[in-house]
Structures
1.
Amino acid sequence: MNVRLPTIEQIRDAAARIAPYANVTPVLRHPALDAMIGAQLHFKCENLQRGGAFKFRGACNAVWSLSDEEAAHGVVTHSSGNHGNALAMAAATRGIPAHVVVPEGAVRAKLEAIEQAGAILHRCAPTTAAREAKAAEVQQATGATLVHPYANTQVMAGQGTVVLELLQQSQGLDAIITPIGGGGLSSGCSIAAHGIDGAIAMYGAEPAGADDAAQSLARGARIDAFVPNTVCDGLRTLIGEPNLTALREHRVEIITVTDEEAIAAMKLLWQSLKLVVEVSSATVLAAVLKQRQRFAGRRVGLVLTGGNVDIDALPW
Amino acid sequence: MNVRLPTIEQIRDAAARIAPYANVTPVLRHPALDAMIGAQLHFKCENLQRGGAFKFRGACNAVWSLSDEEAAHGVVTHSSGNHGNALAMAAATRGIPAHVVVPEGAVRAKLEAIEQAGAILHRCAPTTAAREAKAAEVQQATGATLVHPYANTQVMAGQGTVVLELLQQSQGLDAIITPIGGGGLSSGCSIAAHGIDGAIAMYGAEPAGADDAAQSLARGARIDAFVPNTVCDGLRTLIGEPNLTALREHRVEIITVTDEEAIAAMKLLWQSLKLVVEVSSATVLAAVLKQRQRFAGRRVGLVLTGGNVDIDALPW
């Protein structure tokens, strides 16, 4: 599978394509946090995006990039998390079928949300092979288009619109940091940032227990035998091949944080910004806190990716 | 004490006065919540205001309404809650002293926040008489101006700017609902709303255990022998005299909700809007949920007043 990286033009097209459906999310500032950290922080609140996560942008762009003929057959993906839900919601905006392959044992609440958004669930064994086989089977039976969660040009382009918007809302940023899971967000955002201003330094925050992107960059090749172990459930995905290429081309520096650091930053975000954010999102603030000197005096954009939290089971 | 109600012009002046210091808070929409409730809900997010509550608007307007001569002597209030903190922050924007009278036994975390904001604390016994005596003593010793939390013209005017802003962001609202404690917010917002459009229906949400405004309106006179008992800590204040007058003049209808209803609505707000809001704020959604038929098909503004929550002690 040879997936092209999107261009800045494709990201601009994506922004126009998703505008009728996606929220323009606010950027929040917090003078007391700035003073505490010694940098100017601009929080891009994708937890306030439709569906509670940035994922809707990529899914929506993929759905609306299809021809009418393709669209009529629907879309399919394998994801029991935010992407599955986002694709279901995006398909609903176009009135086309969404098929979501989910592993046995996935969290019931998440599956219910995906079904409520109108998707058809297809269950399979909880292995990568079973997942891909089931998705291929659905594709063959229905003619649906596969929309991969991150190794997909239109998905990356849609997710890059986060930074297009951020740079309109907060001018003159020196640096931008996003969490890194599969790398769809980070690659789209890096291409968008450097399409506008080549001097913006790009960073990625990764949990120490899922630091495959850091390891892959250090080794010069993607590692794929790796079992992530972190409380950051949104970041347990291995970096995709095209995504890793984008990270390398755009000199994205990875900062790894421990689960404890991510949880402490999550709590700080809830208390100071008054936002419900996922622990995966909090890695970006944890990274800035950890490497305060590196960010001292700079204008930093932090992408808060989502807010889909089980509020009955908080990690503190 | 004969406190005048502010005019719409005074509210417009307040908006200009506080603009350099206060946040323009976002209005959030949530299509799924709208569908569930059968109304169009516009959430005005004052939990994202400086200091995490709408209180900053009133305090800031009061501080910047003083002459230089008055300002030099500072300001004083008695409040261990959001208003004390807001006044401390507002005084800091003008570089003048803030004195806050706090009862023995007030929550340590709140007092620390007020001190951190730069205020001078004055302790007294936890009675209304002791509080007022101590505030008078500070006034005499320092020449500071008393800024009452709600029975104060400039405070009401500042708090009314919430609705000026809301009606710019969401045009054509049919109804607006705010929580009711002392009534500063409700009176300021009613005057602002009807200064713009006399047809907007105004509502107040009150916890059943602190329904003194509802009782006072029913009886035609302010009740003052009443001990509030509710989990909504921001609403344990009795309605002020000028505030009650404003509620009557503007035909504000009160909807009372139980603590359980407020807590359920708080949880729903956290889960759907991804916002940290206080249980006091959630009374507005609880009221709309409770009287769904009354709001059916209408465009409703809901003021989410604050997000200062002890996230280690959530009420569910």
2.
Amino acid sequence: MSSRTMSVRALATRASAVPANDPSRKVLAEGAGVNKAVAAIEYAVRGELVLRAEALAKRLPSVDLPFEKIVYCNIGNPQSVGQSPITFVRQVLAGITCPSLIENEGVFPKDVVERVRAVLRASHGIGAYSESQGIELIRERVAMAMEKRDGGVPTNPNNIFLTNGASEAVKTILSMLVRDENDGVLIPIPQYPLYSAAMTSFGGQQVGYYLDEDNGWSLNIDELEKRLAEARGKGISVRGLVVINPGNPTGQVLSRENMEDVVAFCEKENLVIMADEVYQKNVYTPEKPFVSFKKVVCEMGADLELASFHSVSKGVMGECGLRGGYMEIVNMERYVQELIYKVLSVSLCSNIIGQVAIDLMMTPPQPGDPSYELYNKEVTEIYGALRNKAIAMSDGLNTLEGVTCNPSEGAMYLFPRITLPPAAIKEAAARGMASADVLYCIEMLEATGICVVPGSGFLQQEGTYHFRTTFLPPENEIKGVIASMRRFHDRFMSKYS
Amino acid sequence: MSSRTMSVRALATRASAVPANDPSRKVLAEGAGVNKAVAAIEYAVRGELVLRAEALAKRLPSVDLPFEKIVYCNIGNPQSVGQSPITFVRQVLAGITCPSLIENEGVFPKDVVERVRAVLRASHGIGAYSESQGIELIRERVAMAMEKRDGGVPTNPNNIFLTNGASEAVKTILSMLVRDENDGVLIPIPQYPLYSAAMTSFGGQQVGYYLDEDNGWSLNIDELEKRLAEARGKGISVRGLVVINPGNPTGQVLSRENMEDVVAFCEKENLVIMADEVYQKNVYTPEKPFVSFKKVVCEMGADLELASFHSVSKGVMGECGLRGGYMEIVNMERYVQELIYKVLSVSLCSNIIGQVAIDLMMTPPQPGDPSYELYNKEVTEIYGALRNKAIAMSDGLNTLEGVTCNPSEGAMYLFPRITLPPAAIKEAAARGMASADVLYCIEMLEATGICVVPGSGFLQQEGTYHFRTTFLPPENEIKGVIASMRRFHDRFMSKYS
């Protein structure tokens, strides 16, 4: 992107005029006809496997196919596989959508009506653009909730930006951080492909650091130092570090001690921390509670810049379709705060329903509120089911021959490692596949209807093979999914042995 | 952006390692610390004037200020200034948000209940990600509605992409079209600053073509040819043309004949047409009905690529806060369709409420449906008020000394031209303002509380001065707004005469 600034000079030195476009060709055309960086984007979570799954789904039911339905384990989309929404959340959202509903006594509980009134007083409703940064009242309430979460560490509502999902916030920060093709950002391997896709489109360098699979996907500071030195040796100006905690696709939860080491490293090396914390409510190990990077940075008094991300799509709400997210920036220049405002203002504001959903996630009903009992029951059930399924699925996967799978301490995924026979690796290469795990996943889909994502879509150590699967199908189906995976796995291993 | 592809080579030829970052400085910092193209974005609709208005609003009520409230005429945000939402729309959206509501007889009319059921059958509800391109049923219904609108011209649902507002669609197409800093797109002057902001951030060349103010802001083919030749002479590869119809900020509606000339020009020169048609329902001149570029392109049999944009934010719904938009692509390569899918898939999907709102806008209740009578009454009232206000406001502005204002044939704006005294121009220059219309607008805001946007934010002929104002305040306030503008205008002219 440094070339953007050279445009005037570049044009001035061109002597001849550009000929008219060739009318026999499309303007937007494969190859030279589209922006190369955009064309190079890859996003496996909705890639080849999913398109094939959707094509198969259209043929169902079919006597030619050995399964009755597609089981989508490719994406953390809980409500698409049967998880119910939280009643309180939907009642408030319906009330602000159609305010005449709260005028009738008894349609909604009293605390729902109060929440609806508060939002309507603080805004022009869901049909008007809000401030570009998000409704002020909601940012204030999010700030208070974060302070409570972080044991009193102060939060400024002006540093909070409400966005269409966390993705928009991540892209906004990366678009500012990456100045040209010599700028790099440290990104975990394996990673959530939003980061690689965004870096590809902004033309920066992905500087991968490997998570340590043999030690529960832990984050090793020696590895960070090694990869940083390597990148600098190649002339890359490394400006930030992405950390996903709880991990996606790996499911690990960082210890406080490990986080302190990461913060100290970033402070010493002057790196912006981008902390993807969208799975903060999906933690299943009591001995490793979620701690925010904000809390660690502030309690250490570290002098570094931090952006953290959160979303209504995950947690126990799982409200993916609302596209509600937010970002908090910490220790950033006032200028940067204003620049983010400006960038977001070009799209006017994020959708208001998503903004309100963020408020409901951060400040849920409290004991004594009319909605509390039902809310608590629903949340407890969803959380309990997620935790049970995480354990059942990793236990099940570990019984497959040649498969090892770290337990999921958090998030919604498992990333089992599969030992593939040489014949399968050869077959995948012969068919021009990016990795042999693509072959494995395609054959799994075609044999069982289960759609998972090849590990190569998230990057992995050279010569290793994985896949990412969610554990989101309903509790009573999980056993069947595992049994189905086992039958396929055994057949696949025999076929290629 | 061509430099993106040079990264490997560029890095390989750098001999020395990059030093560590300077720990005494912020990483993201004004000047060299952020991406220059992003920093250069300008977006006047939410710029300096609006920030000043918001600061004033926080001081109200105040005896020091000569007005009681801020009148926001800076942005087409109808529901923020009193326009009511359409009952039918909000009932369906509340129903899909909280499906238990439709189980109780009598809460909603029967056709609302049926619409809710249809959406729930065709999707996993508002809480699940949909297909990246948008829910298939909704794309099919949009396609049918477009066919009806365009007198039978066929539409393929696979060419429709549902997005978070039209802005996301516009940015997606431009990001693919602009390959490097030598690529340009023809953009009207004056224009809606989304286009300039997006071109700035993608590093392409804005090739401005002037609309003819003296002829009702018409679009002149000679002007297009002249600007295209000029740009090619400078080495710019011009690849597309943006046309906003009805116009923003100008309010003109193109005649069919004029559109045919534009299409023929773009076909001859092999330019992609980007047709911003978000104001297609805001047409106030019976003798100039809205015609879509899709219809003209197809009926002429023109061999060119077209992307057209629509939104729920405008029209009579004015549902800005829902962020619902869509794009149709016509005559594009299958590869391009797949590339758009891939780009959008990185953000997973647009918000589902916005998707459903698009469906409701395109296929509203029909005569005989239980909701039709109320729907028709509400729509007729809103439309009638918009038309009356458009006339009242342009008539009023034309009575100001030295002000000329083309009537608004469509959209939600007027773009009056103001003749500013030399002393005002000198004063603005002395205060470092980008244009003297900034001075005019700031003084108007401080004297009246009315917030409009300087013409320089939309670009304009050198040496001319304008401002953009909406005509959205309630009908009973419009007279007061005009009177207030007149008092200010007279004082401003005396002050600087």
3.
Amino acid sequence: MSHLSKLDGYFAENRDNHLAELNEFLRIPSISSLSEHKQDMQTAASWLAAAMKRVNLDNISIDETGGHPVVYADWLHAPGKPTILFYGHYDVQPVDPLNLWETPPFEPTVRDNKLFARGASDDKGQVFMHLKALEALFALDGTLPVNVKFIIEGEEEIGSPNLPQYVEKNKEKLAADLILISDTGLYAPGKPAVCYGLRGLTGIQIDVRGAKGDLHSGLYGGGVQNAIHALADILASFRDEHGTIQVEGFYDNVRPLSEEERQAYLDLNFDEEALKEEVGVKELFGEKGYSYLEQTWARPTLEVNGVFGGFSGEGIKTVLPAEAGAKITCRLVPDQDPDEIVALLKAHVEKHKPAGVEVTISEFDKGAPFITPFDHPVIQAAGRSYERVYEVPTAYTRGGGSIPIVAAFDQILQLPVVLMGFGLSSENFHAPNEHFHLENFDKGLRVLGDYLYEVSTLSL
Amino acid sequence: MSHLSKLDGYFAENRDNHLAELNEFLRIPSISSLSEHKQDMQTAASWLAAAMKRVNLDNISIDETGGHPVVYADWLHAPGKPTILFYGHYDVQPVDPLNLWETPPFEPTVRDNKLFARGASDDKGQVFMHLKALEALFALDGTLPVNVKFIIEGEEEIGSPNLPQYVEKNKEKLAADLILISDTGLYAPGKPAVCYGLRGLTGIQIDVRGAKGDLHSGLYGGGVQNAIHALADILASFRDEHGTIQVEGFYDNVRPLSEEERQAYLDLNFDEEALKEEVGVKELFGEKGYSYLEQTWARPTLEVNGVFGGFSGEGIKTVLPAEAGAKITCRLVPDQDPDEIVALLKAHVEKHKPAGVEVTISEFDKGAPFITPFDHPVIQAAGRSYERVYEVPTAYTRGGGSIPIVAAFDQILQLPVVLMGFGLSSENFHAPNEHFHLENFDKGLRVLGDYLYEVSTLSL
């Protein structure tokens, strides 16, 4: 009997119990951002610790962090075998506006084979699946084929303010061969995805000052520099007409896409027409020589996020503005370094500073990009496990956004990161009526169980 | 005995009476913008009509306009002689903040040979001077050497909404050989100025739209156009690095400066260092090949008055903005046409529209530029009258700003306009503690009396 048949049988038999247990977890309103839920955070952490105990994990602890606690556990009785570090979070987003929920957010309800509850998909449901995958292997084999460690935090929805420090402090304790995170989504319904890279982020604000105050455009116009014109000249200098960034050295450390990656993206047959419809544009726009997926997954960006200066009310005010500013962020890709990029941006602005104004630059928070090589065994193994269950080719994707905590794991623990998620972008994370397609709950449990066997065969 | 000696004697003898009479006029709180002063507007108009009667003018009428009335009068008993149309306004600005006035705005007070009151300089004091100049000539000669007409309006401080229509309707009645306005200033203390040109104004708003809503800069950044970048590209395309406007055809109808004008400006020895100090810039900025005075008086401009788009709060928001906009105005010089310039701006934006966005343009109100040729006899005569009294060379200037009603006179009545003012830019028009230097009240009366004789000798 194959692993998968055994897992099938086990999960089918225990489905009702599993859903009932997950519902207990979902009923705890563990909203990390609201202080009135502080006690609920402790309750959720304790529930998780108890659930880990039922799964037979060792060294379970609820670790205080200064914020909401981290729940730790491990099982390290597979000598010579790889160790997987599981990461997830037990905190959830607020639920406002409550009146838009068809059923209350903390009363889990199944409709149409979807489980509706805050946290069903993001991320309690997926954390729960990790535990149940282990439980299945213990039940079927009396042991696990790999070593495992868990850190489940309670502050992901508020930006993980305490986790990097916790990870740094427990670096040795958290040592592993890979980190597995199920907090992302499938590529599309029925089409699983392993996300093997995310973009990083860095940003600056540019403030331009001309005269000491706004001037009358009649009396002074033509003889004194206008702060908005100066700013526009700087902003226009950043990109060419296709969006290719003109900052000297900006692309120097960009890791080129491999032929395999480009082919993998091409095979996804991305529907650009559907995208144009979705965002409401007549034409897409971006760096020549790259497809939309390449542009948004594997190429860096420089975007003005906001601009301000002068009079923006109704009608006209003939002012010669003294001040103008812009906020700019860059999405970065491996191997760009956020600090280096900020230095390049500063040098660029200095070089392109128009006459007649002073320019100051301030920096925003930074996050590094991350990538686990596309052909890394832990990535390819994840793809195989997905394919065995979903019976279609796995999509190998990157994310255009940034998950700072993933970059922190990458940097502090220096582990390959496997983002193997089961959500769908239509499932209203962070919005009313969050839900989780139970089809992916069921399949995901099987994928995760299979993946433990897959990893056990790897030499890492 | 020369004209000037006779005028000197007359004004010296009557100074106290004149100031007492002016104070009556200044005590009327004729604030045109505030509806609670509607009755005061009528009072001020009636006071003016009575003052005109004392001067011996004919055909005095208080003409309703739909807003505050226009006061008309004339004296047309100098056959074969030129006719001067005097324009001024009896309305004043609001007085807030009242607590900043050292003495109440409607209780005229002399301190340090300056008359403090709302309207002392702008424009009741100067209107009163016109009347007293005529009164002096009647007293000295029993007649006037020229024909005169007066229109004194009550809505200048609210943009003269009804005057163009009034002028259009009374085109024949207002026919004259020149229009004389004393609502501007000296070039500097002790240095008189004839202003013979003003810039016009036209403006557009540019609205750029990309996607149908703001997008996540991680998920879409690199593949969808950013409305702010697109706008910045358009704005940057308008001017080169020296501010020279790059809109095709923009300068085609600009009347070149004559050598005489350039020399006259040069002779003013404009202090650029003092200007830099005043506005707080390290360097001036503008079109190459022109001095600061030429840039601001005789060259057109294109200024962004305001820009907006995306996130402008504190910190960072990684949005890919769908919308951005800018407000733009151009100061125009003869013989640019506001409608033609708007058409050129539109064509320019169309030509420079970046990919991936839609751009819409809306128009603001327009005002034509005006110029009375520098060497026109009425301009040169004004210069001579100033010089006779102030005993220094007159400055021949233009104004960088726009006075829409002047352009309207120019266009409707097609008269040479003589801007012959006696204020100083330090006199707080529109601000608390407005005042008028009585030195210029005294000298101005003599200049105006002299000018009537000057004009009587011209063949117009």
4.
Amino acid sequence: MTGAPDDGLDALETPCLILDEGRVRANLARMRAHLDRLGVAFRPHLKTAKSLDVARLAMAGPEGPATVSTLREAEYFAEGGVRDMIYAVGIAPGKLDRVGAVRRRGADLAVTLDSVEQAEAVSAWSRRHGDPLPALIEVDADGHRSGVKPGDAEALVAIGRALDGAALRGVLLHAGDSYALSDPEALAAAAEAERAAAVEAATTLRAAGLPCPVVSVGSTPTARFARDLTGVTEVRAGVFMFGDLFQAGVGAVAVDDIALTVLATVIGHRRDTGWIITDAGWMAMSRDRGTARQAVDQGYGVVCDRAGRPYPDLIVADANQEHGILALRKGSAAALPDLPVGARVRILPNHACATGAQHGRYHVVGADGRAGAVWPRINGW
Amino acid sequence: MTGAPDDGLDALETPCLILDEGRVRANLARMRAHLDRLGVAFRPHLKTAKSLDVARLAMAGPEGPATVSTLREAEYFAEGGVRDMIYAVGIAPGKLDRVGAVRRRGADLAVTLDSVEQAEAVSAWSRRHGDPLPALIEVDADGHRSGVKPGDAEALVAIGRALDGAALRGVLLHAGDSYALSDPEALAAAAEAERAAAVEAATTLRAAGLPCPVVSVGSTPTARFARDLTGVTEVRAGVFMFGDLFQAGVGAVAVDDIALTVLATVIGHRRDTGWIITDAGWMAMSRDRGTARQAVDQGYGVVCDRAGRPYPDLIVADANQEHGILALRKGSAAALPDLPVGARVRILPNHACATGAQHGRYHVVGADGRAGAVWPRINGW
């Protein structure tokens, strides 16, 4: 640690999260400019960051709009003044009282559903409580998860009509299959398919005399590669704010734009095997191995120096719960860097959502290159 | 949820952890009896449970002994009265002040190391603070991670001598390669290899006139399959208390003994694809896919009814952050159970350490079969 620059990192307990504020701001500015050109609103998904400080950088204003993936997030952001949120995971009737409690605190929290069963429960709850809950119908963009098929007019209209005691607000799609792509043309086609499915479903509802003011689409890859969003009113995306190696493999972010790293300390060496051992195992990185299915397998992460510059070919080749095993990629001609016990490295994660969730706060590197501010984040449900 | 049994589960917000106290106690009793027969002490590893309530069931007495994987655990358990702990991850010199603070609160916390570099730092710290830190030398049982090779007498003795300002307490091994096995004879051989390596290293230190009172080995598979532990003084193991599908694949626990499940709520269906969607995605289950490398790939978990009985061939076939996708195993002739929106299921996890860490508490099912007590758990560093 001799001669360490005055970057504030030595004062931190490892492992911990480092967030590069400048990169977050640049990633947001780029997405905002892109969506402005396309003429759609941005409703940032806060499931990656789960931090009010990050939300305030991401949202159009301090009151939103925003997207959340859990009611815990909805409660936390409502407490922080966010007033316009979509809970973008299918609603269970047993969760409606918690939704109602957030709404009574002044937040316009909308729910998501894809069945008549749920719509009837939401209508019944709305009538019973005198609070017509805004609801979006989830439409299936690409067969990867939940949602009504965009061409299933019968189901769409039946759900819309079953919401008669509530407030049908529109349709919501997520093109999750885009995560498996990496060719820009294929990604642009996935974005267009998501748009077309959204517009088809909205048109069906409107033709049946039902309201559909909101047409909401979103995923980081399709948001990034969309060329035309005619008929769409808003885009949800979240992970692009931080970026990660998986999204870099898709081509949706650049490695140099990744804002989130895990700070780790070297705790040992195995000179016989060429391993450097750190205190950032899978508990700090998460178990996410999404890049294993991509063209370049990044192990449990790419190892950088304390300024965030990747060492040639050095990855977290394997991990135990509290041990990270750094090694050169197979076949690499690079030299193992000289990292004594106590040296600090930063590791780019496979998946920012998963890695973030292993931690309770961000240590923020500001414009001066020093770690200073601490931004808390939440977890759980 | 009409006709739901009075099991206390409907009152819980999902997803959440359910812990079957009877199974935890039975798993502990079985291990204790086994180690008693082998004549060795048990130093439970608390990295899986991270809960003082579970620790009190696992430890020989309220003061320990115990094993921890982070200093956060050491601080938490010391606060709860535990007085005898090994921090079983290689020490970084920058963490010694935190070790010292735990010790000043009355806990005998020992550190682990495998280099002269670390030993010199521990000795220097010990002299500077007038507190001779107890230290165990990590010995490599099977080439899977850290540690001095058991036959490397020169390194062992050099580290032992470099601890002259501290307090050499013994050797510590972890046979991590046993996780890749499943044949009982191979597992027994791995346990014997771990024992032999431990005894060889201890003999080397003692022959050099160095103290080696503690000979500590441990992993759930080798603890379970050890037939003779002559020369070993204590066994560390942790995940067996809860069990999981990965350890069941190894053969170290039975599926019926798994004490940890995730309670989930059905939030939708895809009748065209045969999917049932729940609110327990990878955030609730963890990203651990360890069973993918075993004979039976359990997806993200095995789906059980609310009493914990597995549905035939129903697994979490895929997962998004907050969506679990339940489906029958490929080729199964079983019928999909009738699980309406709002129904509750319990999911056996791949890896109890990873799944537990996604949550902040256990909801405990007691002898009456009802969920009642809440046991908090910690996370982070």
